[in-house]
Amino acid sequence: MSSIAENFQSVRQQIDQAATQSARMPQDIHLLAVSKTRQPDELRALYQLGQTAFGENYLQEALDKIEALNDLPITWHFIGPIQSNKTRAIAEHFSWVHSVDRLKIAQRLSEQRPATLPPLNICLQINISKEDSKAGCLPNEAETLLNQMALLPNIVVRGLMAIPKATTDSEAQAHTFTQMQTLFHELKKQHPLLDTLSMGMSDDMAVAIAHGATVVRIGTALFGPRHYPQN
Ligand SMILES: *Cc1c(COP(=O)(O)O)cnc(C)c1O
């Protein structure tokens, strides 16, 4: 079994290589370590190797880890489904939320963001494969939502996030990521400060990077297989 250090090095290499192959700068692609189901010690080990951004899906699990690791200056990203009664804790404890897909959630996050903290960074989640089971707004709803969210004072809409339909077919992956890239460029005409395209996971990070991902969200390739089935 490979160690977290070896996995980290391998993931960094894959990102660098994918960036170089797409004529992009490796430093323009940010690695978000997805740490759902992992123990605080595993996150700590990765932090000590230089990883500072961690993504969590489940609020209570995340809050426990934030508490356990509060001696480290970690940047916490919330990437899971959001129920409206959970927005306050998210607004209080995270720097980023990738999974905002409706105005009501954005409004609550803005209202509940503590005045002592900088604005909360938001990505609008797009249901790019139009799956009934998936969260996210439809691509044709994104512009209106973005225009509305841009008016909220305590959040900053930074870009888009997607979880495409799982497939090992790299052409299908490329097709979906191209749709995201096109949508992102369209929206940037109205919102030039958008700078974040959060897409690509362990199995498709290279394809995502080839199509403009600026954040890849990586779990298993860093930590190994998850021990219980989630998402
Ligand atoms: C679990 C998860 C990931 C990471 O997936 P891996 O295949 O383990 O890299 C990325 N994004 C989201 C939203 C997730 O829930």
Written description of the protein model:
- The structure is a single chain.
- With 231 residues, this protein is of the alpha/beta class.
- It has one domain: Alpha-Beta Barrel (TIM Barrel), CATH 3.20.20.10.
- The protein has nine helices and eight strands.
- The chain has an eight-stranded parallel beta sheet.
- Strand 1, helix 2 and strand 2 form a beta-alpha-beta unit.
- The protein starts with a helix and ends in an 8-residue tail after the last helix.
- Bound molecules: pyridoxal-5'-phosphate.
- Pyridoxal-5'-phosphate binds next to strand 8 and helix 9.
Q: For the terminal residues, how far apart are their CA atoms?
A: 24 Å
Q: What fold name stands as the CATH topology?
A: TIM Barrel
Number of domains: 1
Q: What hetero molecules are bound to the protein chains?
A: pyridoxal-5'-phosphate
- What kind of sheet is the major sheet? 8 strands, parallel
Number of helices: 9
CATH class: Alpha Beta
CATH homologous superfamily, by name?
A: Alanine racemase
Percent strand equals 15-25%
Helix content: 40-55%
Modified residues (N6-(pyridoxal phosphate)lysine): 36
Domain Alanine racemase N-terminal: 24-225
Keywords: Pyridoxal phosphate
Pfam families: Ala_racemase_N
